[in-house]
Design brief:
With 349 residues, the protein is of the alpha+beta class. It has two domains: 3-27 and 197-348, no CATH class; 35-194, 3-Layer(aba) Sandwich (Rossmann fold). The protein contains eight helices and 17 strands. The strands form four sheets. Strands 1, 2, 3, 4, 5, 6 and 7 form a seven-stranded mixed beta sheet that branches. A hairpin with a 5-residue loop joins β10 and β11. α1 packs across α7. The chain is elongated. Keywords: Signal.
């Protein structure tokens, strides 16, 4: 354990009561359960059945965050059962009577289905990412039908019903099965979908202290710089990551994707360290995990703020307010970041 962190532990213990009063936990404090949704009802469906796969979804326990009016705060939207059963039940209940017995069967491989409602009447967002396949009835020769990756604006009046519109997009064919085109078995389709869940960092229980210079370093649980410390620069308002060299000098780490310190994980974003933690097959920003289930208590992060000294109390409060109260934005979007995008390692919703 680093000597700087040992001294930090003493500071943390000494200041724990003051920190709790000064820095209350925020965002996701409640859950809203969703039992069913009303989907558009066409006259008939050109399918003999619809199968749903949710194995590729990073967090199959939730559909995102909605605004709980009674507390004017984000609440985690969860299906009343597991994601696969919930979707399959909704589709079967509403669409089964409309199936065409001799038509192809549709397979929808969901990779992302997330909603984020915004407070204060601002538009929210819903992301749908999926691949659909179809196979002749009573056969197992699937052909690619459609690739969907879209973000839909959620107005203050559309809310949860927009999820039904997103699911309806899955049923819109972009190509019809054709003879001679490449086909896939159900097993071949399912095999690649858990790739993110099998990366070394997802399988790890411990994270070696150090700085990750790239998202690839992080996925491999392999920090490029191992002996580190972090300081907050009051003038630039930046968290600076340093390598502790053999002669006890400090060498700044110039391009840092994130760090691990004493089993706490952080991404480096907008000149700040932002606490993250593993959540199912994804990594979430810790501020969006309910406090009673939060694993990353950000002890090292708080120590960094405390080391800046009481003369920088306004700066420390501004940083905490940004990370834990107001939230940070997804790059190029008004959406608030709640997790890491598994494809690129950037903050996503």
């Amino acid at each position: 354990m680093h000597w700087k962190y040992l001294s930090g532990l003493l500071i943390t213990i000494h200041c724990s009561i003051a920190l709790q009063a000064q820095y209350p936990a925020t965002q996701a404090v409640q859950q809203v359960k969703l039992s069913s949704i009303k989907m558009p009802t066409p006259a008939a469906l050109p399918y003999s059945g619809i199968d749903i796969s949710t194995a590729a979804i990073q967090d199959s326990t939730a559909i995102g965050f909605v605004t709980a009016d009674e507390i004017s705060q984000a609440a985690r939207l969860v299906p009343d059962t597991n994601m696969h059963r919930w979707l399959q039940t909704c589709i079967k209940a509403q669409y089964a009577p409309l199936y065409t017995p001799t038509a192809p069967r549709l397979l929808c491989v969901l990779q992302d289905l997330r909603i984020q409602e915004q407070k204060d009447g601002n538009d929210g967002f819903l992301r749908l990412k999926a691949i659909t396949y179809s196979t002749p009835v009573r056969e197992e020769h699937y052909q690619l039908v459609n690739i969907i990756d879209t973000v839909i604006t959620v107005s203050k009046t559309s809310g949860i019903p927009i999820i039904a519109q997103a699911i309806d997009l899955l049923l819109q064919p972009a190509a019809s099965p054709q003879a001679g085109r490449k086909t896939f078995t159900r097993l071949a389709i399912a095999e690649p979908v858990n790739i993110h869940g099998r990366t070394p960092v997802m399988l790890a229980r411990e994270y070696k202290t150090g700085a990750y210079l790239s998202y690839e370093d992080f996925l491999n649980n392999r920090p490029s710089v191992e002996n580190i410390t972090v300081k907050l620069d009051p003038l630039s308002r930046k968290f600076n990551v340093y390598e502790l060299t053999k002669d006890s000098a400090l060498a700044m780490v110039p391009a840092c994707w994130g760090i691990a310190f004493e089993n706490e994980l952080y991404i480096y974003y907008q000149d700040m360290l932002v606490p993250i933690e593993k959540n199912n097959n994804s990594f979430m920003l810790s501020s969006w995990v309910t406090p009673d289930k939060r694993q990353n208590r950000a002890r090292f992060w708080r120590w960094i703020l405390e080391k800046a000294g009481p003369e920088n109390n306004t700066l420390r409060n501004d940083i905490f307010d940004k990370v834990y109260r107001k939230g940070i934005n997804v790059p190029g979007s008004a959406a608030l970041a709640t997790r890491l995008d598994p494809d690129n390692g950037l903050p996503g919703f």
